[in-house]
């Protein structure tokens, strides 16, 4: 957050378990958008004014400010949630569903979305390995299915039924996996272990694995004298 009057800035770290992406207005009007457009809209600058104004510590009053979200550290396994359901203030039930397609390839490069101040410089290239799809008007109802990439290609899992969709990297297969039915997209970073069991588990005893800590940072600090 940055004050529009004195330039005072405040940086807050907010660890996340998944990216929950609002869908751009173009999608609501029926135009297909790419997932990179949705991420850009998520990170775009926002103006804080009137009742949403910011309490600037330097000006010592509420002022107009700009707010921008940046990604600091990206995980080995990334879950992307597409916010397809809209709510009206007077109702806790979703009142509409955005049906448009959020297009993506099986490969995604997120390097441009990481903060320039972040020391994370590893190639941030991801591969899609699963998608959760939803059919219906409400997240509390309807039907969920999953498409998963295995060694021999993509498979769809629908309750007790399975269907082979085709080999990975094939355009025909992509059209069966990616579409307006997607609700969750799961990506794996290319430098991640191939087996899920090899992905290190976060714990209080392993702070270097926490989302906001970069590789080696905690080990370096822990070696410093008290």
Condensed summary:
The chain has helices at residues 25-28, 35-43, 171-177, 217-222, and strands at 2-3, 19-22, 33-34, 46-48, 54-56, 61-63, 65-67, 77-83, 85-87, 94-97, 102-103, 107-109, 125-135, 143-150, 153-158, 161-166, 182-189.
Q: Describe it for me?
A:
Helix content is 12%, strand content 35%. It has 226 residues and is mostly beta strands. Residues 1-190 form the USP domain. It is an enzyme of class 3 (hydrolase).
Task: Offer a few descriptive terms.
mainly beta, 226 residues, 8-stranded mixed β-sheet, Cathepsin B, Chain A, 12% helix, 3-stranded antiparallel β-sheet, disordered C terminus
The CATH architecture: Alpha-Beta Complex
How much strand content do the residues show? 25-35%
Report on the biggest sheet.
Answer: 8 strands, mixed
Count of domains: 1
Instruction: State the fourth-level CATH superfamily.
Output: Cysteine proteinases
The CATH class label is: Alpha Beta
Q: Any idea what the shape is? A: globular
Calculate the terminal CA-CA distance, rounded to whole Å: 32 Å
Please count the helical segments.
4
Structural class: mainly beta
Contiguous low-pLDDT stretches (5 residues minimum) are 216-226
CATH fold category name: Cathepsin B, Chain A
Helix content: 10-25%
The total beta strand count reads 17
Q: What string gives the helices and strands in order?
A: EEHEHEEEEEEEEEEEEEHEH
Mean pLDDT: 83
User: From the alpha-carbon coordinates, what is the Rg to the nearest angstrom?
Assistant: 20 Å
Region (Disordered): 198-226
Domain USP: 1-190
Family: Belongs to the peptidase C19 family.
GO molecular function: cysteine-type deubiquitinase activity
């Amino acid at each position: 957050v940055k004050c529009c009057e004195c330039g005072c800035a405040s940086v807050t770290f907010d660890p996340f378990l998944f990216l929950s992406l609002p869908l751009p207005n173009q999608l609501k009007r029926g135009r297909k958008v790419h997932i990179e457009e949705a991420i850009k809209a998520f990170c775009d600058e926002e103006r804080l004014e009137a009742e949403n104004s910011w309490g600037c510590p330097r000006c010592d009053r509420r002022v107009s400010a700009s707010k921008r979200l940046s990604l600091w550290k990206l995980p080995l396994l990334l879950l992307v949630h597409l916010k397809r359901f809209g709510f009206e203030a007077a109702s806790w039930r979703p009142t509409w569903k955005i049906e448009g397609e959020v297009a993506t390839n099986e490969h995604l490069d997120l390097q441009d979305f990481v903060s320039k101040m972040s020391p994370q410089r590893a190639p941030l290239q991801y591969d899609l390995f699963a998608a959760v799809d939803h059919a219906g008007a409400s997240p509390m109802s309807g039907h969920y299915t999953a498409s998963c990439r295995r060694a021999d290609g993509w498979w769809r899992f629908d309750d007790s039924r399975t269907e082979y969709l085709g080999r990975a990297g094939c355009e025909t297969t992509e059209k069966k996996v990616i579409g307006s039915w997607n609700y969750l997209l799961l990506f794996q970073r290319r430098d991640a272990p191939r087996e899920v069991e090899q992905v290190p588990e976060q714990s209080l005893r392993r702070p270097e694995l926490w989302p906001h800590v970069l590789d080696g940072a905690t080990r370096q600090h822990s070696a410093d004298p008290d």
